[in-house]
Amino acid sequence: MATGKKPKPFIMKTLLTTFVFSLFFLNAFTQSNSDEQIIRSIADNIYSNTTWDFIDRSNGQIVKSISVENYSPTVQIRSPYNTWNYWNGVLNIAMIDFSGFFNEPKYKEWAQKNYEFVFDNVAVFMENYKPTMNKWSYPFGQNIVTRELDDCGAMGGGLIEVYKEIKRDDYKAYIEKAASHILTGQERLEDGTLVRGGPRHYTIWADDLYMGIVFLARMGNLTGEQKYFDHAAKQVFNFTKYCYNPNTELYYHGYYSDLKQNNVAHWGRCNGWVMLAQADLLEYLPEDHPQREKLLEIFLQQVIGVSRYQDKTGLWHQLINKSDSYLESSCTAMFIYSIAKAVNNGWIPESYGLIAKDGWTGLKSKIQEDGQVQDICVGTGMQDNLRFYYERPTQLNDIHGLGAVLLAGIEILKMK
After folding, report:
1. 84 to each of 160, 319, 387, how far by Cα in Å?
2. Which of 86, 359, 362, 364 could be bridged to 150 by S-S, CB 3.0 to 4.6 A?
């Protein structure tokens, strides 16, 4: 029998340290791989369930192409992923970012094909559009009618990303149209704050900070013109002036300029839009822009405020300051993305990264194996009672949240 000497203490310590580090790196790799699989499942579910054709609702038949000759008022877009709505704009941007992060062109090409599909077919629907029609339900209605920021902002921002590589004249024309609308056409208060016509005369919607900045920041980057950055910065200051509540450290959903009072709700997703807008602006804003430091202060102010309401699961609530409202996925994803991006870019201290990581842990519990995301609040208007927000339903895989979830996952992977 062998009777070797006992290992010396320092050897035992070295072996133990090596073993612990091996376990640590193995766990880190496994976790990273798991997170990658999760966000890939979302992107692949979207990619594989997209079609670029139409359906005739009167008989259920698939229509591969349309023209003035075969147009029918019952023909609709078959896939929800290539309509012209602001949530599609966020999703297109997310898929382009996903493509760049993983260096896989097919996801960027997916977004490019979405815009190609719109611009190759919109003329037929434009010719048959009547002012009495509902632009929300009419095919490409928000492309045809540009009245509000969510008609052109997010989709226009995504189009700018596509235009960087595909220089179509009609893309350029639309980008210039959207720029003109946001700078001069959209209704605004005397101090320049962007507003909507409803639900009351000249209402500020917190959502609209994103709907304007998602375009303005990219337009400034595309053209190099400071006026776009200046206008975007001004909106951050003004929206904060009107909608931020220093007592709760949260943003109200809106401000009624005619009543000079706020809406009642600290709705989750509107706070998400505000933070997402600031992250977008900080990404493209020149380092030497005179308002950059002030913008960073406002951004960190919101990060700290929102973090105080994070649930122990890592998620945030539909009404952020109401723990008896449901835990909601889209606002959670927006906070994760914005905070993780800020940490990754050195805009805020690294210690805030744990907020995003805890949020991601909670959000993963809402993602099914097939890549569908649970508990995304459906589209939501503005009302003056909290019950309206409490009772807004959720919908599995609602597109209002998918782009934000993908963006959040990418930034978490970067952080790791």
Report:
1. 15, 28, 30
2. 86
